[in-house]
Design brief:
Its EC number is 2.6.1.42. The protein is an alpha+beta fold. Helices cover 24% and strands 32% of the residues. The protein has two domains: 167 residues, Aminotransferase class 4, branched-chain amino acid transferase, N-terminal domain (D-amino Acid Aminotransferase, Chain A, domain 1), CATH 3.30.470; 165 residues, D-amino Acid Aminotransferase, subunit A, domain 2 (D-amino Acid Aminotransferase, Chain A, domain 2), CATH 3.20.10.10. α5 crosses α7. The structure holds pyridoxal-5'-phosphate. Pyridoxal-5'-phosphate binds next to β14 and α5.
């Protein structure tokens, strides 16, 4: 049976897997809803998006994704409030960033209506999968890759855009200990660090594994030039609080322009917290840790929202951060999640109802 909604055709799954899901004990991003959105690019244009049952995809071994890594993604969440209404958080920012990543990777840009109508139709079909428990949400993974084939090292002529969803609990449990990286780099000037492309993450796994062997859960990436300035925390933007000022690096072609990052900056300003967007040197952070003015460090991203850092390692020395009762991290996390879950007024106009 096929239905149509928002110009998106819907092919329903014959059976649902939802009965097997324990919504009280959700992990992060490891079970998937009954449906997915698929949109193919061929003959120079995007074909109409379709909602179909979640299923494997078949690709030629010569598909360019396997050889040249044209692959980009986004990460978003859908939130269900107490009355059962469903909300997205600044979804057009994800859409715009997807196309920014696509452009950098020589992939075709997607029309806004395909993204938004496709996503909202998928959320309608799988709305029962959006968890209502505190801290839980539906993690949404839009992604695009080169499905066209050929060993010639050039952009593919066919692509797939897919959205899959995973009901999820919270991402990190507890505070993390991080290592400030002095040898490896995540991104370089003129490179692809600002794009959400798969290779950026593949390149992080090995240094992160080395850090894990030394007892650190994450790596703080520094600039590729002299490893002098801190840039990102794993796959999150990074904030540092020295005394009562909240610092974060300006975005550039090495740093991903996080939606959580910019929302936190706006909320902090609204709270009267002094913020500075500027280069933050490792020396400044180490000195602040030594003289007691370093109060907090945390990562910021959609998955974990805010991920507090308990300690950092640098040049063989570990520096502990204080345990604060009234941390900026917890205040900012509460304010942003209260907006996301429709528990507070949204003076910024960030919430987007899925109707
Ligand atoms: C996705 C991502 C972030 C966070 O972006 P959000 O829009 O806040 O989710 C930060 N850094 C990197 C490297 C990322 O991939």
């Amino acid at each position: 049976m096929e239905a149509v909604m928002n110009n998106v055709t819907i092919e329903k799954a014959k059976t649902s897997k939802i009965k097997d899901v324990d919504f009280d004990n959700l992990s992060f991003g490891s079970i998937y809803t009954d449906h997915m959105l698929v949109c193919d690019y061929k003959n120079g244009q995007w074909q109409a998006p379709k909602v179909v049952p979640y299923q494997p995809i078949t690709l030629d071994p010569s598909s360019k994704i396997f050889h040249y890594g044209q692959s980009i993604f986004e990460g978003m969440k859908a939130y269900k409030d107490e009355s059962g209404s469903v909300w997205l958080f600044r979804p057009l920012e994800n859409f715009k960033r997807l196309n920014k990543s696509a452009k950098r990777m020589a992939m075709p840009e997607l029309p806004e209506s395909y993204f938004m109508d496709g996503l909202t139709t998928l959320l309608h079909v799988d709305s029962d999968w959006i968890p209502q428990n505190a801290g839980s949400s539906l993690y949404i993974r839009p992604f695009m890759f080169a499905s066209g084939n050929g060993f010639h090292a050039s952009p593919a002529d066919e692509y797939k855009f897919i959205i899959c969803c995973a009901p999820s609990g919270s991402y990190f449990s507890g505070k993390v200990k991080v290592l400030i990286e002095k040898q490896y780099s995540r991104a370089a000037n003129g490179g692809v660090g600002f794009a959400k492309t798969g290779g950026n993450y593949a390149g992080q796994f090995y240094p992160t594994r080395l850090a894990a062997e030394k007892g650190y859960q994450q790596v703080i990436w520094t600039d590729d030039n002299n490893h002098e300035f801190i840039e990102e925390a794993g796959a999150m933007n990074v904030f540092v609080r020295i005394n009562d000022t909240l610092l974060t690096a300006p975005t550039n072609d090495r740093i991903l322009d996080g939606i959580t990052r910019k929302s936190i900056l706006d909320i902090a300003e609204d709270e009267g917290i002094k913020t500075e967007i500027r280069k933050v040197s490792v020396k400044e952070v180490v000195d602040a840790a030594k003289n007691g003015s370093l109060k907090e460090m945390f990562g910021a991203g959609t998955a974990a929202v805010v991920s507090p850092i308990s300690a950092f390692g640098y040049e063989g020395v570990d520096y502990d951060l204080p345990e604060l009762k009234d941390s900026y991290a917890s205040l900012l996390k509460k304010r942003i999640t209260d907006i996301q879950y429709n528990r507070a007024e949204d003076k910024f106009g960030w919430r987007h109802e899925v109707v």
